From TrEMBL, chain A:
Boundaries of every Moybdenum cofactor oxidoreductase dimerisation domain copy: 289-407
Keyword Signal: yes
PROSITE patterns: TAT
Protein keywords: Metal-binding, Molybdenum, Oxidoreductase, Signal
Gene name in the database record: yedY_2
Signal peptide annotation: 1-30
Protein name, per record: Sulfoxide reductase catalytic subunit YedY
Residues in Oxidoreductase molybdopterin-binding domain copies: 111-272
Molecular function terms, GO-annotated: heme binding; molybdenum ion binding; molybdopterin cofactor binding; sulfite oxidase activity
Cofactor(s) this protein cannot do without: Mo-molybdopterin
UniProt-listed NCBIfam families: sulfite_DH_soxC
InterPro entries hit by this protein: Ig_E-set (IPR014756), MoCF_OxRdtse_dimer (IPR005066), Mopterin_OxRdtase_euk (IPR008335), OxRdtase_Mopterin-bd_dom (IPR000572), OxRdtase_Mopterin-bd_sf (IPR036374), Sulfite_DH_SoxC (IPR030835), TAT_signal (IPR006311)
GO biological process, one term: sulfur compound metabolic process
Automatic annotation (TrEMBL), chain B:
UniProt keyword annotation of Heme present: yes
InterPro entries in the record: Cyt_c-like_dom, Cyt_c-like_dom_sf, Cyt_c_1A/1B
GO MF term set: electron transfer activity; heme binding; metal ion binding
Source organism of this protein record: Planktotalea frisia
Protein name: Cytochrome c2
Highest rank taxon of the organism: Bacteria
Taxonomic path: Bacteria, Pseudomonadati, Pseudomonadota, Alphaproteobacteria, Rhodobacterales
Residues covered by the Cytochrome c domain: 128-216, 335-438
UniProt keyword annotations, A-Z: Coiled coil, Electron transport, Heme, Iron, Metal-binding, Transport
Residue runs in coiled coils: 35-62
Record carries keyword Electron transport: yes
Amino acid sequence: MDEMHKPSRRAFLRGSAAAAAGTVAGAASAQTADPLITDVQDWASITGAGVDETPYGMPIEYESHVVRRNVEWLTASPISSINFTPIHALEGTITPQGCAFERHHSGAIELRKEDYRLMINGLVDKPLVFTYADLERFPRENHVYFCECAANTGMEWAGAQLNGVQFTHGMIHNMEYTGVPLRALLNEAGLGAAGDLKDKWVYVEGADASSNGRSIPMEKALDDVLVAFKANGEALRMEHGYPVRLVVPGWEGNMWVKWIRRIEVSDTPTESREETSKYTDVLEDGTARKWTWVMDAKSVITSPSPQMPITHGKGPLVISGLAWSGHGQITRVDVSRDGGITWETARLGKQGDTKALTRFYLDVDWDGAPMLLQARAMDETGYVQPTKDQLRETRGENSVYHNNCIQTWYVNAEGIAENVEVS
Amino acid sequence: MSKSPNILLPALGVTGIVLGGAYGTMTRSYKADEADIARAQAQAAEARLVSQEEANTDLKSQIALVQDSAKAKIAELEARPAVATSMSAPAPVRDGAMGLGREALLEEIAAWDVDVLPDGRGLPEGTGNAFDGEELFADKCAACHGDFAEGVDNWPVLAGGFDTLADEDPVKTVGSYWPHLSTVYDYVYRSMPFGEAGTLTPDETYAIVAYILFSNDLIDDEFELSHENLGAFKMPNKDGFVVDDRPEAEYAAWSVEPCMSNCKEEVTVTMRSVFLVNTPPEGGSESVMNPASVEGLPSFSSAGASFIPEAQAKPEAVVEVAAAAVEEPADEGAELIKAGEKVFKKCKACHEVGNGAKNKSGPQLNALIGRTMGSVEGFKYSNVFQAAADEGRIWDEASLTEFLAKPKSYMKGTRMSFSGLKKEGDQVAIIAYLNSFLGE
């Protein structure tokens, strides 16, 4: 962008000052004419960017703070690590790929479509190798699904930890995937050799150096699993598994193997590193749950939240949040403003899609008094999102994974929100 | 679904437009004198009446038109019920193959299908013991996992932790937690060493796995681990797992109509966020201990907050400032530096460079050229680098190039597990990249 097209610094400062004044006085009681209206602004006079300047657009610079962020001390290396979706600053339900959280075990790799191969072997009639072009010839489907890391909210087992919904709940994204049902590929290789499918498994693994591998029971593999090559209408981003990743709706993100290169039909789970030493949930007595694949119903208020304080004072306030369930549709979300004494049923932005994020709203008149904000989701099975106490009662505090507790934000009289735990 | 409201909607829209037009006529005569105003108002009223009558007639005929066409549309839709229902369907699966893809060759399957099952199926022939494994481990694994598998920094601890699984912070190691030994072989062989996956031979892998068992006191250093006995090896925590029992333990009890009012007598804040998180414009995050306590916060009852606290200790609001435009360096070597930055990805797991670079499992690399070898403060060097430091040897481009090409031949005994940059272009690029941090 050249100098001509930038709003001048003076104009920018003027804009900020006017916005600040608006916060204090309120738009309805403006005493002096707003120079943003009465003065001819640069952007209303000088021409803007041409159509040849931005072949692929990024968000405008004023939104450059809405980015994935990592917490350095969480892991030994950013190459085997995770970052967090800025869910506090997003609206609606679709997560743009560019700010959707990443989790890699050996870094994001650059793999060309031309170099891509997908092998199906094991208990199949005919082991096969597909190219990317082969995959494009199978009948395909489009579905919006959430992908949540099993460790999302995991730090909160030990109590309120990080002050921001991006960090407590940001290991999640929600995209429209285009892909081929896994059952079509299995059918192509033929499952006759597998015999009775009831006790059979598919083992899936990635092409990156970690070759992350997980075992999926055949029943799920034949149900709604997708071998996906597009997200939100465009090619998968490198960090989301370009050119092909697995989509395992409603189940923990670690199973959504990126850069998927091999699918093996087997008579037993592989018991790989990621499904034994990791992604198993230690209970209070030291035993651990394994094969805890489904992500249970969960919700969180994204605004107000620690990164999204109330800046407008008393009066109309939009309480906005997200709800999701790995068991199906979200049917209801309740919101409490007093730490769970009283609940009001929120408005769903639209009817919940199965295994996808649902946006909810509670539109209130804030009286300026402190609040303890909570959200509580229910899904189509009738399951009600539990409190932290309920979770700890059955599991203790060492599970790391699958923390779907009701989250509390304390909002003080100035509108500042903080991550807290309540009695 | 009722069909009629939809039909009336366009008609209401028309009324709005007509009234809006009349209002517009009136407000524009504001500069005339009073008589003119009165006259204009009278005329406007008359015009309004006329135009409303016209509009009404117009409206009626329009409504009739819309309703007629809607009726016709409904009749048409009802005659074709399939159109009125959803046409979406899952992707069809053929009865029989589509003839896509090609048959996988046996050697291709052998190259990729190397996962090992709990009973030992999939293990390649081979053998190894902890005695041989110790040296391999020190060479290839200890930089991250420590000489005794105790773990360096945040890297995984592989040994010990027995009888801690029920503690507050369980230590989940290969010895204390992993249920199957097959998993250790499988993971080491396929995914380790970090940054050089897939380079170990079966014998090396057996030896490293044996060393990990040895460091957990599970075997002695003469035990020969092989494809013949690995599958039958019993791990201590083999029976420590139960299949997901959430349906029985949780779902039934938690799937009840929830309480909506007077659900609790009183609610108090019992804990405040341990860390405040700053989110600087350049990205990432900074965690800062939260000094605030729960003292002085209101309690809540069905009547609301017990009081509105005054001047309470509040967390700093997260400041998110739009990033200032960064000037791209445009000097001649920029391309090379950029290429070097890409090559440096191979090093990033262990080395940091740039502003605030810290020692990780490898030393920080700021101002590397011209620096005495083995001289970074606070870094625990191997003997060979300590000797180089004592001799006062200096990193220059020639020595760094040679080291990067084959670290273990240039510095025999280095703990750096990296096998080297094979391409000359990569060596040149990475040195250009590192040189861009000479001033740090």
